Write the structure tokens for this entry.
Amino acid sequence: MTNQTECTKGTLALPPVALKTLLGGLSVREFLAEYWQKKPLLVRQAVPGFQGLVSRDELFALARDADVESRLVRCQNGQWSVQHGPQQKKSLQVRNAPVPWTVLVQGLNLWRDNADRLLRHFSFIPYARLDDLMVSYAVNGGGVGPHFDDYDVFLLQGIGRRRWQIANQSDRTVLKDAPLKILKDFRPVHDWVLETGDLLYLPPHWAHNGIAIGECMTYSVGFRSPSFDELGREFLYWMAERQSLPGIYADPGLKVQKRPARIDEAMVGKIAQVLANIRWQRSDVAAFLGEYLSEPKPQIFFEPPENPPAPEDFARQVQAHGVRLHRKCLMLWTPAAIYLNGEELDCDALSGTERELLTRFADTRILPPTACSPALLELLYGMLTDGFLAESDEDSAEQ
Ligand code: SIN
Ligand code: CO
């Protein structure tokens, strides 16, 4: 990881974002009822004064970092190509680009505080559904081609302009042999040019094609839509680690068999009966979701502080300033438990009020100035030494 990747603040300031302006004058209730997962919404000047969150050079530095997920997409004479990161300096040629290209960096919110802050403005959708903030840069004519996504997306235009064509077509046939999903027959029904600060919301499966008009950068807030296949598979792995079926197979009543290779019906029946005893409760499903959905992506690592304060000093800091969750953390809760980065927090020694405080910490990601009981201090101090708390020189928890 380069220093530039870990330069955490982001060079461009995010202007104040008003939820009502972001949603084009709609209340969250109206947006959810009329648009969410139903139909697109174009909002002109959703974020007035927006200038983007990173410069082009910063974005290129991220794309060249092996810890950061990136893709470079080119199209030459109708032939698409995708290069996964880390990108080469020579591939990111801006002037006189021989073919239109775009580079996309996933998870900007993991690397920049201002990107995390922008993402949190979308917390009217539960965190369990929120995925990440992606940023793309494209030279004139660049884009990823007409395609559809399985998830909802908010596309916020950064610097420059992008033409968006969108379609609600049932024909989702994609080009054969292309390295990315490009629609074979794209029939747009809307055609808009988005300027800096404009926002386009698209529900899953709305086909779209974004073409850069001159140099442009686009920020995409993407959501998680795990398939039932994924959830089922992961739940069964999770259950396997918690399930115990006592006893071993026995067959004292074994009968003479002429065909020794055959798995006989008696064996199948007995084992089917044992397996039918595998049961789970709703509470298992909730605990699985808490752990699974709060698990950071595999490339995410936390850096414990080099010189953590002594616990007594830390307690004074918490009492005076509170703490903030590190932007890489995922913290979720159910009425029964609180989950942080794939694990249930041990809250047994906490009071009901302290647990409630932690659920609010998960919601707002800020713990206000608090006098800690020994149990709460131990838990928070563990979070500090695991690198799960934002450093105190980043924006204060009191903001
Ligand atoms: C882009 O930023 O070019 C791609 C965003 C998308 O189509 O989902
Ligand atoms: Co898309």
Remarks:
- The chain has eleven helices and 16 strands.
